[in-house]
Amino acid sequence: MFIRRAIGAELQELLKEYPVVTILGPRQAGKTTLAKESLKEYSYANLEDPETREIAQEDPKAFLARHGDRVVVDEVQRVPELLSHIQVRVDEVKGNGQYVLTGSHQLSLREAISQSLAGRTAILNLLPFSISELKAADIQFDRFEDYCFTGFLPRIYEESQRPTTAYSNYYQTYIERDVRQLIQLKDASLFEKLIKLLAGRTGQVLDYSSLANDVGVDAKTVRHWISILEASFIVFKLSPYFENFGKRVIKSPKYYFTDVGLLCFLLGIRESDQISRDPLVGQIFENLVVIECLKSRYNKGTLPDLYFFRDNKGNEVDLVAQSGRALKAIEIKSASTFSMNQLRGIRRFNSITDKVESSYLIYTGDAHSLSDNISAVHFTSVESIL
């Protein structure tokens, strides 16, 4: 079963504008399927295949000549030196839509692209399915707990995989392998401890020193390991928003898992009914909504421009979405009933900046308009507000 990806329209537009389009995203997010289904007339090369990779490394000119002028090159970070040869080829051949590259580690790939393909490639970020993509395929759940537990990995839906088994294998096969290779980790237990502690602190302002003490390594190591998780699209860093608020504003980031199904697995949740009883239920729901907002921005080919606000008095807005100079203030609550008390953070934020054009409460209840240009929105309709 192929579920159509919202980012497909932007991919087609970019192919008309650039000789190369690079699709970045976590393992198993559907990058290969998107490219193959959208570009059936393109030839295909997967650099995960040892034989293909060897040819690309040993004789890149022959490799490119063999595949012609329209080709999808999968997991291109495995042979980053190929990019300079692609640069030469696109400059010789001219014309847009020649190459589609995919990669699952953005640090090394972005560095290589900036050196070889600057000005020649557009970059798209593809995350696992969004709620709206599932809805378009007539796949819906009644409760947010079911979305969170099932997660959004394409294979779970396309191959009817059991979520716990799928995320267990995903963690062992991709996260442990990829991340351990990148950081050359000797003691896997320390990294496993870090990622599980990070899961327990999702949506919290992160104190690197405190986390380092709990893991048993120094803060510099924790920062490095988290940067690798971020570069591998396992976690997303939400930075604080501040303009001229001075020392009142918290300036440490929050982290969320790019797939809430993986978060639930790491928290030891083995059935959806556990979520509503979990002490982190609010943070799990918040993770779901923040990443749905991120997917909405990515699928349109735009920068995320997502932040949170918190000052030293505890006034907070869960999400601040920026569009140009205008802001949208978003409060996220797992409750199904509305109360005015839920809007305190929004009202406080709106009182200290004049850039907010609209404000939203995202929760599990019915949608309706409130006073002061504030709307309550059901979590499945997040895309409509961004």
Automatic annotation (TrEMBL):
Signal peptide: none annotated. Residues 176-334 form the DUF4143 domain. InterPro entries: AAA_14 (IPR041682), DUF4143 (IPR025420), P-loop_NTPase (IPR027417). It holds the Pfam family DUF4143. Keywords: ATP-binding, Nucleotide-binding. It comes from the Bacteria. Residues 19-134 form the AAA domain. One of its GO terms (molecular function) is ATP binding. PANTHER family: CONSERVED PROTEIN, DUF4143 DOMAIN-CONTAINING PROTEIN. This is ATP-binding protein. It comes from Oceanipulchritudo coccoides.
